[in-house]
Amino acid sequence: MDTSTVPEEGWVVEDGTLKHLSNGGGGDIVTKQRYEEFDFEFEWKVAPGANSGVKYFILEEERRKTIGHEYQVIDDEKHPDALRGPKWQTAGFYDCFPASNRVLHPVGEFNRSRILVQGNQAEHWLNGVMVLSYTLGSPEVLKAVAKSKFKNVEGFGRRHRGRILLQDHNDEVAYRNLRIRHLNR
User: Fold this and answer.
1) pTM of the model
2) How, if at all, do strands 121-126 and 51-60 pair?
3) Is the separation of the CB atoms in 86 and 96 below 8 Å?
4) Domain that holds residue 19
5) What is the pLDDT of residues 130-157, one digit of tens each?
6) How many domains does the chain have?
């Protein structure tokens, strides 16, 4: 990710982290390149009560919506979205699948995450443990999408080339050690 084009408000680079300030505005940070099969590792921490996420397979939509698969980054104990249930908690595939066997560091401390997509297999990792695995385009995924808010989004749940995004959810979140590698080149 190119931090030389960080939005002029909302996001700051300090002490080796890319940080979104609470109520800072600025919008999402989106990669210039598109990725289809990739290995993306990153570290993150949220402030108490904060919500963010890393989206991938971003679909280009009208009205500049940023719809994509989301690795949820959130305070599971305090944010209202996380209190809805496991599909909206840390490392889950937002509104589709929960993560399992999660070991989180306390809010305010960095966690290590990874999103790995090889072929049609997608994996979410948290602190060195694979916590979610799903097969893109599978009946299981399409059934989960049909029950989600993405049910009317054409192509959602399938692999395609798309951008990766760090979400501005208007809360304080910090990212560092962002490393992404194309796997299909």
Assistant:
1) 0.93
2) unpaired
3) no
4) 3-182
5) 999 999 999 999 999 999 999 999 999 9
6) 1
